[in-house]
Design goal:
Strand content: 5-15%
Radius of gyration: 17 Å
Shape: globular
CATH class: Alpha Beta
Helix content: 40-55%
Distance between the termini: 29 Å
Length: 227
């Protein structure tokens, strides 16, 4: 099963509840704007649903070990340790992923805007993005998203199957994890520019960043643009 990437498009497999993906998405958007390529390149967000791949709910302990580390890499992306009640923690991210797929019906620009807003809502504002009313409220802050049309697709459940279609691809050797970027020229990079290891067990230890080269996003976007 081949990952098809149209020209002027970057495909990213990622989970919304992945701190490394939140930092990567921020770097993608900031670099694209700096290179004045916003209108030239679209980001096609595909699901790498960790809860389905790992057979577990969103792991709060692991994320709270990762956030202080990843947050120092890109503090402007929007971060905080979970501030809402523990029982409001989003144990599933599938509804939020489904919303991003639903927004694709309005175009990739709308879906990438909603994707970024949902990441900020989770990591920067402690919003439970497993709840549909919260997802809709986030969507209302996105100028490019037709919220009424989005809600109809969510109510009808028409976008859920697309997640499972991409899950088949996500579980192949082509996709190494969240985030993983693919370009039309065959270039693909997992967690661009970052090398990380864990000290101790997941949930008990902490991640250690051994290398961080954010300049790789300039190369990826220049390649994607064909300049």
């Amino acid at each position: 099963m081949t990952i098809e990437v149209p020209r002027k498009t970057v495909v990213m497999f990622a989970d919304i509840a992945c701190p490394w993906a939140h930092a990567a998405v921020h770097r993608f958007h900031v670099t694209r704007d700096r290179l004045e390529l916003h209108d030239a390149i679209r980001l096609d967000v595909r699901a790498f649903p960790l809860e389905l791949i790992n057979d577990q709910s969103t792991p709060k302990r692991i994320l709270e070990a990762e956030i202080p580390v990843v947050g120092t890499m890109e503090p402007d992306a929007g971060w905080q340790i979970w501030q809402a009640r523990p029982d409001e923690w989003p144990v599933t991210i599938l509804p939020a992923l489904e919303a991003v797929y639903a927004a694709k019906r309005q175009g990739l620009e709308a879906s990438e805007e909603l994707d970024r807003a949902l990441r900020r809502a989770l990591f920067g504002h402690s919003i439970n993005i497993s709840m549909q009313h919260e997802i809709i409220e986030v969507a209302e802050s996105c100028p490019l998203v037709d919220t009424a049309a989005l809600e109809k697709v969510l109510i009808d459940g028409e976008a859920r199957s697309a997640i499972f279609g991409d899950l088949e691809i996500a579980q192949t050797d082509q996709v190494q994890g969240s985030p993983h970027f693919f370009l039309s020229d065959g270039t693909n990079v997992h967690n661009p520019g970052v090398t990380v290891r864990w000290e101790g067990e997941h949930g008990a230890g902490f991640p250690v960043v051994e290398k961080d080269e954010p300049s790789i996003y300039e190369d990826l976007l220049e390649r994607a643009s064909g300049r």
